[in-house]
Amino acid sequence: MKMNKEKIFWGWYIVAGAFFVMAVNYGARYCFGIFVKPLSIEYGWSRSVISMAATINMIVYSIGAIFVGRMLDRIAPRWIITAGAAIAATGYILTGFANTPVSLYLTYGLLVGLGATGMGVVVCSSSVGKWFIKKRGMAIGIATMGISFGTMTLTPLSGYIGKYFSLRLGLVILGIITLLVGIVISQILMRKTQPEAYGILPDGDKTPLPGQIPVVPAITPVSTRTMFRDLRFWTIAVSHGLTVMVIMSIFVHQVAYAIDNNIDSIAAATSLAVISITGFFGQFFFGWLSDRLHDPKYAYFLGIIFLLMGVILLYNTHSVGSLYLYAVIYGFGYGCLAPILPILAADRFGRHVLGSIYGLLTFFIGVGGSIGPILGGIIYDNFGSYHYLWIINIAVLTTISIVILTLKKGNPYKSAPPSG
Q: Which residue range forms the structural domain that includes residue 79?
């Protein structure tokens, strides 16, 4: 008796593709903090001037997320990722030759920010979310583990190249890796849109009988007016935006802070890899946990608590040992961020419009995230330390841990109203 069943559900290929695309995208972007002090020493730029490049990068990334999210509800992700890889790679290579703040802002801020949008979580996690319902948390958790995998492999590599060769060579290598991995992986693994378009069902756990082929839902873009009237949208957008503000301030300034505390530059850069290692496990854990809780917001709450404990430890860091202890705890909590947002969005608003919803959420999240790097730079330039930055981060995370518990369930958008 023949069984009409695929050996491997295509959704898992999407998961694999998203894993590697996000690995190279975020791994490369999070290397920026390694270059802050070398740029300051070489050109005499203040840290707020250098940090502005990361802020511009986040703003461009956030604006682009609105458009790629809506595009993703209509076309295959491979074309968006391919374009993003080409633009980001160009930006990294040109950043290696930037010798003025303006050229740094145009190359890393504008080009890398725009390219990163096409390779980011909106495209990758939304693509995964369209293929799963029952296993959505685990699938997105596995895919977002790529973020940590990329960071723990690329940040030590960049730190080594920057110390023993040059920061320019490090940036050129990041560009080449981004181009090759982004294009090859997306064209092979990310060429399909959603299961119904190919006559199969989400999760791949059953095959429809003849005459019961799944119908591709008619996707109408969700009205921004509708979303703006939804308190759930604002609760998620503001909470996650402020959390990313904290994350970005730490990623950009953590290495410089450690070096200021007489910690070796390689050890300081490696602490980013430690965050990524524990974040790697955290991303799987929080995705897995969200499938087993009646509401994924509780998994988010737990992740924020780990982040909060980590920042408190960072505030008291003065040695390699204490830096690595902070990185272990903070990294595990950091692992909740990438999987939880698309899981919450799909749970609250529906998977078929996930690209549009996630894209607009990412815009507001990116605006919050763009504040982090420049805030850290301004605080350091005015006070000569990061003391007040860590105090602000602790207060913000404490507030978010309370606010996220107020997030109501509500109903998904059954059919999105016309855009307006």
A: 10-198+221-406
